[in-house]
Amino acid sequence: MEENLSGQLADAVAQGADEADLARARAGDDAAFTRLVEPLRRELHAHCYRMLGSAHDADDALQDALLRAWRGLARFEGRSAVRTWLYTVATRTSLDIVEARGRRALPADLGPSSDRAVLDGNAPLTDVAWLAPYPDAGLAGDPAGPDARYEQREAVELAFVAALQHLPGNQRAALLLFEVLGFSAAEIATMMATSTTSVNSALARARKIVAHRVPPRTQQQTLRRIGDARVREIATRFATSLERGDADALVALLTEDVTWSMPPLPHWYRGIEAITDFAVQVPMTRCPSWRHRVTSANGQPTVAFYLGDDAAGPHAAWSITVLTLRGEHIAEITSFLGPDGFAPFGLPASLP
C-alpha cells in the first residue's frame, strides 16, 4: 500500500510540474516546452516512422510537428493531455507527408522473385520511395497504453511497417493510434477531426489488410522464445558464412521458403536454390572482403556489413541487413544497401 501511495504522489508531482511547464511554455518559455516534449520525443519519432516507413521522413515529420505545436501552443486549451495533443499534431503532420510523398515499398511489391542471380539489369531504382530500417535503441517493449494490442517494438517490425504502407493514410493513423498507442475510437475521432463511426470503419478495413500481410507470430515472440544469446549467434553465423564464402553454412541457417531482397535493387529471391545461386555468384565471389557488426533494427536481429577491396584494407559501409526469424532459422533477409543508413544506428562509415 505504501508503494501505491508513493506512486500516486510521484504522479501528482509530475502532473503539477507539467502544468507549471505548460503555463511557462504558453508564456514563451522554450526551455519549459522542451521539458514537456523531451520525455515523449522517442515515442513520437517511432510513431512518425510507423506512419511514414522512413527514419529520415520521421526526423522531418517530428521536427515539423514540434514546430507546429510550439506555434499553436496558445490554442491548446488543456482539454486533453499534453501527450494526446502532441500525438494529434504528429499524426496530422505525418498525414500531410503521406499525401505528398505516397507510400514506401519493398522489392516484393514491384514484381515476382528471380530464380537465378541477376548480374545485369539490376540497377538501383531511384524513382521508388523505399521502406527504410529503423534504429530501435530505447524503444520500450510494452504497450504505450493499457488498451494497446501491439508492443512498441512489435509495431516497428518490418512486416508490420510494410503492411501499414498498403493502407490509406487515415486507416494507417487510426490503426496505430488505437492498437499501438491505446487511444479510444472517440479520442481518435477528435484527433483526426472525424466521427467515431468513421474511425471504427477505418479500423475494420485496416485490420483486415494487416492481418493478411503480417505473420501470426511476431518477431518479439519468436526472439523471446529463442533468447538473446542464440539470436546473436544466428546473426553472427549468417555474417561469417558470407565472409568465409561458406554456402553450406549459409543454407543450414535458412528456411526452405526464405526470401532475400536488397532495396534499392528491384530484383529479389525466394527459396534456398535461388538464394544459394545469388549468394555464391555475388557476395561470396564478386565481393572481395566482408566485415560486420551485429546490431538491431526494427526490433529484429541485424547485421551491418562493410565491404573492402581486400582483407587488410579499409572496409566501407555497405548494407544494414535485417533478419526475420521463424523458429531458429532465417525466413527473410532484407539488405538495405547504401552508407546513408549507418549514422542513425551510431555505426561508423568505415572500418579500418
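The record above closes out task 2.4. Task 2.5 opens with a second protein, given below.
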Amino acid sequence: MLRAFAQAFRTPDLRRKLLFTMGIIVIFRIGSFLPTPGVNYANVQTCVSASADNDVLGLINLFSGGALLQLSVFALGIMPYITASIIVQLLRVVIPHFEALHKEGQAGTAKLTQYTRYLTIFLAILQATTIITTARTGVLFGGCGEAGGTIPVISDDSPVTIVLAILTMTAGTGLVMWLAELITERGVGNGMSLLIFISIAASFPAALWTVANAQGGFMTFLLVVLLALLLIAVVVFVEQSQRRIPVQYAKRMVGRRVYGGTSTYIPIKINMAGVIPVIFASSILMLPTLLAQFGDQNAGWVQWILRHFATPASPFYLITFALLILFFAFFYTSITFNPDEVADNMKRYGGFVPGIRAGRPTAEYLRYVIIRVTSAGSIYLVLVALIPTLAFVLLGISNIPFGGTSLLIIVGVGLETVKQIDSQLQQRHYEGILK
C-alpha cells in the first residue's frame, strides 16, 4: 500500500490533484480557528471549557471540526449545505417539478444544484443568526458569555457588529461550499465528504487524549481504541457487502449490428441509505433540547426534556434514536431507489432478471429484495450508532469521544477516496492500493 501511495505522488497528474486537495484542506482548517469579527477569542475559550459537558449542539460542532463552539469564520461548516441537499432530495417526492428536473440528466441536475446553493445561503443566515443570538444570551455555553456578564463572548454588542458577524459566518459557509466543489472538480474524492471527514478526524486525538488522562487511565484508553478498531472492521465489512441481482439482456438487431446478449447485475448495498438516517435522527433529537434552553428551566416540560433528551445514555433517548434510524433508513431508501423506474428501464433495453417476467413482476421482486436488505441494513445502523454510547456508559466515560455516526462517515469517505485513487492508478497501469 505504501508503495502504491508513493507511486501516486510520482504520477504528475495525480500528484497535482492530491496536493491541491491537501491545500484546500489546510485552508479549511485555518478558517476553522479564525475568529469571527467582534468575538472575544479568550472569553470563548473560557466558556468552552466551562460548558464542556453541554451536548446540545454536539453533532453540528462535530461536523465543523470544533469550529462552531469557537465562533470562527467557518463555524457553520458544511452543515447548511448537507441540510439543503437533504431537503432538495426530499422535495423530489413532494414537488413534481423537482422530480422532472432529476430525470432531465445533466441540465436538470445543474438546476437542482443551483436551488441547493440558494437554500444553503438561506439556511446559513438563519443558523448564523441563531448561533450569534444564543452566544449573546449565554444559551450556547450554558449561561457563560451572556451580554453584560463578566466574560461576554461578543465584546461589542452594537447592531453593526452583530450584522457583520452574521454576514461573516454566512460568507464562510459559501466559501466552504466553493472549496468543496473545487476539490470535487480538480482534486481527489468528493469535496463535501472529505471536508466532513477532516472535521470529524480533527476532533479524535483531543477526545482520546482526554480519555487517556482524565477518564480511567491507560486501560480505559486501550479499551476505547480496541472498540473503535472493532467497529471500523465491522463497518468496512458491511459497507463493502452487497446483494447482486443478476440481469440478462436479450440480443436485438439494430440495422446490421447485434446488441445485447450480455449478463450483468444490479448491486444493492446492505446499507443503501448510508449515514443519512443517523444524521436525521440525531438532528431531530437535538431540537427538543435546543428548544428547552430557551424556556423556563424550572418548568415541568423543560425538566422532562432535559431528563430524557439531554443525556445520550437515557433509555428513552436510545429507544427513540433507534426507532428514528429504522424509519429514516426505509424512508430514504424508498426515495433514492425506485423499483418501478429500474424495472421500466430494464424492460426498455431488453433486460430481465432470470426467472422473473419483465415489467411489474420485476418491480415487485426488486421491492421485495430491497425491503429484506434494508431491514438488515437498518438494524446494522442501529447497532453501530448505539454500541459506542452503551460501551462508554459501561466504562464510566462521561464525555463520549466518538459515536457511530463519526465512524460511519470516516470509514465510508475513506473507502470512497481510496477507491478513486486506486482507479486512477490502475488507469495508468500501476498496481492499485486495494488488493
